[in-house]
Write a structure and sequence with these properties.
alpha/beta; 9 strands; 6-stranded mixed beta sheet; 243 residues; 3-stranded antiparallel beta sheet
């Protein structure tokens, strides 16, 4: 698979505080990569750099040449909170980037895909947390990205809703043939979703190890082979906290 995103961060600092150092990662077409690490290690900062939202760093972000002419460079972002506009309907939030010129047919299709048909005219206050995050995912897909970046998108929902959203995300990634770069604190989530799990160390954050989860999708959560990967991830995280 060809590389669609290549990120090199020699150093990222906030004042005298170095957050990231000597970080390099690539994302291939249709690949799912999970960033896993202790709080404060720079995972979310790295994601913002990948999105182009933070340009104040030493290094580079290179996207595949065929992304250059695409909207937003072929990249979209889903935040930890849904960040929906409370005065806009579900449909208006999905097509927010285009305002009144939004593609209604495309919005209708996305509503079907995320399971929100019948809620298009509802306001965010009428939605559950899981439903609101479905809207946020649909909004991310509205620009037809090739890469979707997600910053702990399921951390605020209950365990059952989280599993349903994970399965939805996998289905959408396959359907739209897109790559995912996901930040998570949840080991099980990283192994269930990711083709690769990049384990980061404490600040200044760097990538300590790469776990290749060579299990086909869709995966079974009860697959005993995931236990060995989890043991490896736990060991790496324990060492990361030791420094």
């Amino acid at each position: 698979m060809s590389t669609i995103l290549d990120i090199k961060v020699e150093r990222k600092s906030f004042g005298d505080d170095t957050v990231l150092q000597a970080v390099g990662l690539t994302l291939a077409e249709r690949e799912i990569v999970a960033l896993l690490g202790p709080s404060g290690c720079g995972k979310s900062t790295l994601l913002r750099i990948a999105a182009g939202l933070d340009k104040d760093f030493k290094g580079s972000v290179t996207r595949a040449p065929d992304l250059a002419g695409q909207r937003n460079g072929g990249v979209a972002f889903v935040f930890q909170e849904p960040r929906l506009m409370p005065w806009l309907t579900v449909a208006q939030n999905i097509g927010f980037a285009d305002g009144e010129r939004a593609d209604q047919e495309w919005i209708s299709q996305l509503l079907v895909e995320v399971g929100l048909v019948g809620w298009e005219n509802s306001l965010p206050k009428q939605l559950s947390g899981g439903m609101a995050q479905r809207v946020a995912i649909a909004r991310g897909l509205y620009s037809r990205p090739r890469v979707l970046l997600l910053d702990e998108p399921f951390s605020a929902v209950d365990a059952f809703t989280r599993m349903k959203l994970q399965d939805l995300l996998l289905s959408l990634a396959q359907q739209h043939r897109i790559s995912l770069l996901l930040v998570t604190h949840d080991i099980d989530e990283s192994l269930y979703l990711g083709d690769r799990v990049l384990v980061m160390g404490s600040r200044p954050g760097t990538i300590r190890n790469t776990i290749h989860v060579d299990l086909p999708q869709p995966r079974q959560r009860t697959d005993t082979r995931l236990a060995s990967f989890k043991a490896e991830a736990l060991s790496e995280l324990h060492e990361a906290h030791a420094f």
